[in-house]
Design a protein that fits this description.
The protein has 7 helices and 7 strands; from the N terminus they run H-H-H-H-E-H-E-H-E-E-E-E-H-E. With 206 residues, the chain is an alpha+beta fold. Strands 1, 2, 3, 4, 5, 6 and 7 form a 7-stranded antiparallel sheet that branches. It starts with a helix and ends in a 12-residue tail after the last strand.
């Protein structure tokens, strides 16, 4: 996985002419605020450190414009900058994978969320097909900076824009979890309707 993290970083740098200190700052903030895959910040850091100290890289990186010495120097500076930013805050949101999907699938309905198109909506873009789900649902399970854990789930595209926001017991009051969701995702308040507040035009009203 360590080169997986580095490859993800390099995709974010492929159009950068120089691996400057400004780019170090940009990628560091991305690591802290928008974790790659469903990794914790510590796991991302460990992956970068493992790649930096590895004697040889087996992955072909010829597709990107920066040579290995420049990349290794960038990783060194990135690790130093991340160390300088300790202690790290939890990111605003972090995907948790589908390990607890069964809990969330039948969890407590908090709200209905009207999604934008995936190209315009970070949350919509994070939705993934749920393995083995008979209804073809797409979902993402998230841990918010507040500590709340929620799942956003939607039906298949092309019509899957009406999503459900769920959590599992025990949980804080629904209004507190919804407020944390709004705060940490930046989602527009007028596109999130608390369950039971009014009729919803979308999918699986419960």
């Amino acid at each position: 996985m360590h080169l997986g993290v580095v490859v993800a970083i390099l995709y974010c740098l492929q159009f950068s002419k120089e691996l400057s200190d400004e780019e170090v700052e940009r990628i560091a903030r991305m690591i802290l605020e928008q974790p790659f895959y469903d990794l914790t910040t510590e796991q991302e850091y460990e992956g970068i450190a493992a790649a930096f100290t590895a004697e040889a890289w087996e992955t072909d990186l010829s597709w990107q414009p920066h040579g290995e010495p420049a990349i290794r120097d960038f990783l060194r500076r990135l690790l130093e900058h991340l160390d300088a930013l300790r202690p790290w805050q939890e990111p605003p949101l972090r995907p948790l994978g589908f390990g607890r999907w069964e809990e969330f699938k039948d969890g407590v309905l908090l709200a209905h969320v009207r999604l934008y198109a995936p190209s315009q909506d970070v949350l919509h873009a994070r939705l993934r097909a749920v393995p083995g789900d008979a209804d073809g649902r797409r979902a993402v399970v998230l841990r918010l900076r507040s500590g709340d854990e929620v799942a956003l789930m939607a039906p298949p595209l092309p019509d899957g824009y009406d999503a459900l926001l769920k959590t599992v017991a025990p949980h804080r009051p629904a209004e507190s979890v919804i407020e944390a969701f709004l705060t940490h995702t930046g989602y527009p308040r007028d596109r999130v309707t608390p369950a039971g507040r009014r009729k919803w035009w979308g999918w699986r009203r419960r």
